[in-house]
Amino acid sequence: MATLILKETHVALEEEIKSLEKLKRETSEKISEAADHGDLKENAEYHAAREKQSLIVYKIQLMQSHAPFRIIEHGDINIDQAGFGNKVAIQEEGKDKPEDYYILGPIEEELDLYPFIVTYHSPFGREVSGKKVGESFTLDIRGEEVKFTVTSIDKISSE
Questions:
Q1: pTM
Q2: pLDDT by residue (tens digit) across 43-61?
Q3: How is 101-150 classified by DSSP, letter by letter?
Q4: CATH number belonging to the domain at 3-70, selected among 3.30.470.30, 1.10.287.180, 3.30.565.10, 1.10.357.10
Q5: Which of 8, 73, 102, 124 is most exposed by smallest CB count within 10 Å?
């Protein structure tokens, strides 16, 4: 099953991966230079560069692990009911005012592009998806049933 991703996020993802690939090449050069300095057991530069390289490779693999992608254009986002690509204002019972949540995917969350991201496949995201303004839902949060009401639905700004 394809991972939903906003077109703007896909562009940002490609740029991030290019940047990480460049950093990976630069780090490989540092590893080679550090290895040329002799005994690798006590070579702090070598070990630091290897650790950095491992983190870069992990991050690239993590971002690519969500492929294949289904790219969603801004014009394809529906505001009749909550779903992927929406900014949804949700009033939690007992709270003074609603909070905005962004219904997106794991890549938007990984790249930290928006505040209060709720992935569409999380329990909260699955529960709010399909709801219309004025509709409520409940979630079990730490053993307590909490009621939420959708107060508005907008498209996420493409800016």
A1: 0.80
A2: 778 888 889 999 999 998 9
A3: EEEE-HHHHHHT-SSSEEETTSHHHHHHTT--TT-EEEEEETTEEEEEEE
A4: 1.10.287.180
A5: 73
